Amino acid sequence: MLERTRAERLAGLRLSLAEVDAMGDQDFEYALRDLLVRDGWTADQVGRQGDQAADVIGHHPRHGRIVLQAKHTTVGAKVGVQVMYQVKGTAGPVHGADVAVVVTNGGLTRDAMAWGDQYGIHWIDRARLESWAAAGRPLHHLLPLPRRPLG
């Protein structure tokens, strides 16, 4: 009941990039959690010291378990490939993820994007974040997430 009430409250959630940029790191993690809930996931913010590259963990009946690693940066900063290595090493083995995503309000290096694409670590850069957060486009429309049959 509480999850449904929260989802209904968040159904129209839109966050501009200016709002995202003004957030602190933890507020960014909570915002990502809320965006997942808006898109039909159950989700919890779990980030803290020693979180093993998981800031938000969610579940969706069609897409499985998701782990988001949030990288709130200054505008123009880029997330490097080492973050992709960390997420790849922990998302499945430690957190049981079907899907792993690195989300930043900045950018990613070319190496980080290419490595993520090659090894199955999804990424959301500033442009994708704007589509997801500000325009309200659901995550499963932005990323090629796995689909499981219901039932």
From TrEMBL:
Coiled coil spans: none
UniProt cross-references to InterPro entries, sorted A to Z: Restrct_endonuc-II-like, Restrct_endonuc_IV_Mrr, tRNA_endonuc-like_dom_sf, Type_IV_Methyl-Rstrct_Enzyme
Family matches, as Pfam families: Mrr_cat
Gene3D superfamilies linked: 3.40.1350.10
Domain Restriction endonuclease type IV Mrr: 21-132
Protein name, entry field: Restriction endonuclease type IV Mrr domain-containing protein
